[in-house]
Design brief:
alpha/beta, TIM Barrel, 3 domains, 20 helices, elongated
Length: 539
C-alpha cells in the first residue's frame, strides 16, 4: 500500500505558539530529523510579504527559504503556506530545483474564487500547488461541488480537507471525502489536515488513509508531538507508526523520536498545547481557538459557560475572534438585575468606620504570619478572606466572586460556619441568612482580559462603604521565572493559564489597581502589610 504521503507541518502550524520564532538550531535540527525519518513532505513555514529573519519560519519567497532547505533533498517535497489575505503572490519567484517545491494556498470561503487565481499563478511559476480551503465543514455540499469545478480548471497538485476547528467526526470525513473524490480531477491528490479538539485527529487520519485506498492518492498532515494552537494537531509520530506497522511504510521512527527528545521538550518549556475540555467545547461550536483562550482567563467561567457564550455568538463570527464581542457577551451573561440594597445596607452598618483587612490567597500569607497577626492584634479589623478559608485566622466574611473557588471551598466542612459575601455571577439567591449576595454588574468594569479579578471587584465594593482604612495581605502578584509554582498559600490553588501568561496577568492587575486608585469615590488609606509587587501603587 503506497497511496499515502505523510506531510509534517510542525515548523508552520506549530509556529503560532512561538510567534514563528523557533530558533535557528531548532529549525535546522527538526528539518534534519524529518529528512532522516524519510517523511514525504516538510512544510518549513510561511510566505509573508516582509519575509523573516534567522530563527523564524517566515520567508519572502523561494530564494529566501533556501537558507533552511538542505542541498540534498533526498526526494522529499519542501513546501510553505501562503495565506491569501496576507501574501502578495507577485513576490513569489520562479521555482528552482534547490528551493521550495510546493506552495499551500489557504483562504476563507468568501475568498475562494479570487484565491483560485493565485493558485493558478503558483502553478504557472513551476510550483506544485495545494488548494487549502479553511474550514471545509463551513461549505454546503453544493458550494463544495461548485468550487471543485473551478479547482479542476487549474488541476492543482492537491486539494485538502482542512478541519480548521477540530469539529469533524468520521461521518463528516466520509461525506466530504466522497464528494471531493467523486468530483475532483483524478490527477489531483486529496489532503487531510486535522485539529485535535475532540481527540479524534489520529483516528480520523487513520480512517482517511484506509478509506482512500484504491480510490485516490492522498497526503495526510501531522506535527511532531501534535504541536499546534489550542488542542494541537494530529501527531506525526502516531500516523507514521500506523503507516509503518500496518501498511508497510519505511519511515524511521527512531529519527522521529530523536526530534521529540532533542527539540520538542525544550519547545514545550516555552509554550503548551493539547486537549482540554474548553478546546473540546470550541470544537463543538467550530469556534476559533482564540475565543476559548480569551474566555478561560476569566475567573468566573466554567466550561459550560464557554459553551453557552459561544452558542450566543453568530456561527460566522465565532470562527474568527472579536474580543470586544466576547467581552460584551461574557458580561451580559454574568450580569443580573438583583436588588442588593438590603445587603449593601447590612455591609455599610457592619463596616462603618472600621479598619478592613482584605486577605488574598498569596503565599505571603504563609511567609508573613507574624506581620498579619500583629496587625490584627493592633487594629482589630473586619477581616475578609478572598476566595479561601484560612486554617488559623478566622475572618468576619468569606468573599467569593470566583465560581471555581466557591465550588472548591463549599465542600469544606467549615464553610457553613462563616458569613459570606457572594457576587451574583456565582448565585442570585441566598440559601441562608449568612449569605449576602451583591450584584456583579455594579462592580465590573470592561477593558481588561481579567476584568473579573476578585480583589479588584472587592475593592470597588468596599469603595461603596464607609470604612476607616484598608489593609491588604496576600495580593503578591505572580512569579514563575524560577519554575517555582508556590505562588499561593496552597499548591492546590495554582492555575495553569496564569503560569503561561503571568507577566501579562501582573500587568493587568497593576493597571486595574491604578484605574481603581484614580477613579475611586473615597480616598481611604490603603496599605499592603505583606510583600507585594503592587504595593508601590498606593504609596
Amino acid at each position: 500500500m503506497s497511496h499515502a504521503m505523510l506531510l509534517d507541518c510542525t515548523l508552520r502550524d506549530g509556529a503560532y505558539l512561538v510567534e514563528k520564532e523557533f530558533g535557528e538550531n531548532n529549525i535546522y535540527g527538526i528539518i534534519d530529523g524529518l529528512v532522516k525519518a524519510r517523511v514525504d513532505c516538510i512544510e518549513i513555514g510561511f510566505l509573508e510579504n516582509g519575509g523573516g529573519r534567522k530563527g523564524k519560519t517566515v520567508f519572502k519567497n523561494s530564494e529566501d527559504a533556501k537558507r533552511v532547505i538542505p542541498k540534498d533533498k533526498q526526494g522529499i517535497l519542501f513546501c510553505v503556506l501562503a495565506d491569501y489575505s496576507r501574501y502578495s503572490i507577485e513576490l513569489l519567484d520562479k521555482h528552482t530545483d534547490d528551493g521550495i517545491d510546493a506552495v499551500r494556498e489557504c483562504f476563507f470561503k468568501k475568498e475562494r474564487y479570487d484565491a483560485i487565481k493565485y493558485c493558478e499563478n503558483i502553478k504557472n511559476l513551476g510550483y506544485k500547488c495545494f488548494v487549502q480551503p479553511v474550514d471545509i465543514l463551513g461549505y454546503s455540499d453544493m458550494e463544495l461541488i461548485d468550487f471543485i469545478q473551478k479547482v479542476n480548471e487549474i488541476e492543482p497538485y492537491c486539494f485538502s480537507i482542512v478541519d480548521t476547528f477540530g469539529s469533524m467526526f468520521q461521518e463528516d470525513l466520509h461525506r466530504i471525502f466522497e464528494i471531493i473524490n467523486h468530483n475532483l480531477v483524478p490527477t489531483c491528490k486529496i489532503g487531510f489536515h486535522s485539529h485535535n479538539n475532540m481527540q479524534l485527529s489520529n483516528a480520523l487520519s487513520q480512517e482517511f488513509i484506509r478509506m482512500a485506498y484504491g480510490k485516490r492518492e492522498i497526503i495526510v498532515d501531522g506535527t511532531i508531538s501534535g504541536m499546534g494552537r489550542g488542542a494541537g494537531n494530529t501527531p506525526t509520530e502516531l500516523v507514521a507508526q500506523y503507516m509503518v506497522s500496518k501498511l508497510g511504510y519505511n519511515y524511521d521512527m527512531d529519527a522521529i523520536l530523536d526530534i521529540i527528545d532533542e527539540y520538542m521538550d525544550n519547545i514545550k518549556s516555552r509554550c503548551s498545547w493539547g486537549y482540554s475540555t474548553s478546546y473540546f467545547v470550541a470544537g463543538c461550536y467550530s469556534a476559533h481557538v482564540n475565543n476559548v483562550q480569551y474566555l478561560t482567563k476569566k475567573n468566573s467561567i466554567k466550561s459550560k459557560d464557554i459553551r453557552y457564550i459561544l452558542n450566543k455568538i453568530d456561527p460566522c463570527q465565532r470562527k474568527r475572534y472579536d474580543y470586544g464581542l466576547l467581552e460584551k457577551t461574557y458580561v451580559e451573561y454574568l450580569k443580573s438585575d438583583i436588588n442588593d440594597s438590603e445587603e449593601t445596607k447590612y455591609l455599610l452598618k457592619y463596616t462603618d468606620e472600621k479598619d478592613l483587612l482584605l486577605m488574598a490567597p498569596g503565599n505571603s500569607i504563609n511567609l508573613e504570619k507574624e506581620e498579619i497577626n500583629d496587625y490584627i492584634a493592633d487594629k482589630r479589623p473586619v477581616i475578609i478572606n478572598v476566595n479561601f478559608i484560612h486554617d488559623e485566622i478566622r475572618p468576619d466574611f468569606l468573599y467569593f466572586s470566583n465560581i471555581k473557588r466557591y465550588k472548591y471551598w463549599k465542600k469544606d466542612e467549615r464553610f457553613d460556619e462563616y458569613n459570606k459575601i457572594i457576587i451574583s455571577n456565582i448565585k442570585q439567591n441566598a440559601e441562608s441568612e449568612k449569605e449576602h449576595i451583591i450584584a456583579f454588574n455594579k462592580l465590573v468594569k470592561c477593558g481588561w482580559n481579567n476584568l473579573d479579578n476578585s480583589m479588584i471587584l472587592l475593592l470597588r465594593l468596599v469603595d461603596m462603604l464607609n470604612v476607616k482604612s484598608i489593609a491588604i495581605a496576600g495580593l503578591d502578584g505572580f512569579n514563575y521565572d524560577s519554575g517555582d509554582s508556590n505562588n499561593y498559600l496552597s499548591r492546590d490553588m495554582e492555575v495553569s493559564y496564569i503560569r503561561d501568561d503571568f507577566m501579562n496577568v501582573n500587568a493587568e492587575i497593576a493597571a486595574m489597581l491604578e484605574d481603581y486608585k484614580k477613579n475611586r469615590k473615597k480616598n481611604v488609606k490603603i496599605e499592603f502589610i505583606t510583600k507585594s509587587r503592587f504595593a508601590d501603587i498606593f504609596l
